[in-house]
Write a structure and sequence with these properties.
- The protein has about 325 residues and is an alpha/beta fold.
- It contains 14 helices and seven strands.
- The protein starts with a helix and ends with a helix.
Length: about 325
């Protein structure tokens, strides 16, 4: 069947015009704060200020909320004497943004301990928390994105989110009621960036999300050429060029029988081999970071405060060894 050329051209022009309009609408959303992004923004701002106030070399713990809830910078500093800040934020921001943020914070002479959640090695970089945060809280990141990435975001953002932005422009959202540690999160951070709103005594009843499985450990990791691994490669190149030392460790996760199977073991090996190929020391093992359910707070990735301290104390000897080998 012959399709008239004017029809094809008209269809293409219509698609490009619609896409261009949606990208233009994204620009109208920049800097309009949402409640959805408030907890992440509040803790990020406090942690950035804590790191900036420390002169000289620092050890920065970089990752998602599993880092905030799962490691204790204060114990590391007390045991090693190295100034340490827990810079964990939210895995929903995506690995591209987390590593971008790390570049904004790090200085020559710093050491970064990467704690990448398993999902971030294989998941697509864009997500609702990622896109909402960039639009609401970091217009500068949006503006420096490539046009292809902006187009990709435009295809993900729902019109409902655009409508919400216009509603916030007319009338800002009422701040959510404080409910530790997620809506007034910065108030529960220590001067080391450690979370204290996850006390064992305050643990909520177990919800359905406690049964969530880490897909890369269940389905395996096909290769080290996924978007997540590529983001880390690029970040490591940046770190070398800026005299920033990088180590890696495994994220804490609730142990499940599925994680003892061959697919999980192959995934762990893929991660370990990747860091070895990049010359990056791996602190601790994946098995050491798989812990029983009674040590978790509200998700299979968030330890209680007490468990995070104990987990960190077990990791400290290897951190000391890495610090000593770097001297």
């Amino acid at each position: 069947m012959h399709v008239p050329r004017p029809f094809i051209l008209g269809l293409a022009c219509g698609l490009f015009a619609g896409l261009g309009l949606f990208i233009a609408l994204l620009y109208t959303q920049l800097g309009l704060p949402t409640n959805f992004s408030s907890w992440t923004y509040d803790i990020s701002q406090k942690k950035q200020a804590l790191a900036a106030a420390i002169p000289g070399p620092r050890l920065l713990l970089i990752g998602g909320s599993g880092t905030t809830f799962g490691l204790n910078a204060q114990r590391i500093e007390e045991e090693t004497g190295c100034r340490t800040v827990n810079m964990g934020t939210h895995a929903g921001l995506g690995l591209d943004y987390i590593l971008y943020w790390a570049k904004e914070v790090a200085r020559p002479g710093d050491t970064i301990l990467l704690v990448v959640e398993y999902q971030l090695y294989t998941s697509p970089l864009g997500s609702e928390p990622h896109d909402d945060y960039i639009l609401a809280r970091d217009p500068a990141f949006f503006r420096q994105m490539s046009w292809l990435d902006k187009i990709d975001m435009a295809t993900r953002i729902s019109f409902k989110r655009i409508q919400k932005g216009f509603a916030i422009w007319r009338k800002p959202e009422t701040p959510p009621r404080p409910h530790p540690p997620y809506t007034d999160g910065a108030a529960y951070l220590t001067n080391y960036g450690d979370e204290t709103g996850n006390l064992e005594a305050e643990r909520p009843p177990a919800g359905p999300n406690m049964d969530e499985l880490a897909k890369p450990l269940v389905d395996g990791i096909p290769s080290d050429r996924t978007a997540g691994f590529n983001e880390i490669r690029s970040f490591l190149q940046w770190a070398r060029a800026h005299q920033v030392t990088v180590w890696a460790t495994f994220p804490n996760i609730m142990h499940r029988p599925e994680y003892d199977g061959p697919k999980a073991q192959n995934a762990i090996k893929a991660i370990t081999d990747f860091y070895a190929s990049q010359g990056i020391p791996v602190v601790g093992t994946a098995r050491e970071a798989m812990l029983p359910s009674d040590q978790f707070f509200d998700t299979p990735y968030h330890l209680t405060h007490e468990a995070a301290v104990k987990r960190t104390e077990r990791l400290v000897p290897e951190i000391k060894a890495c610090l000593n080998s770097a001297k």
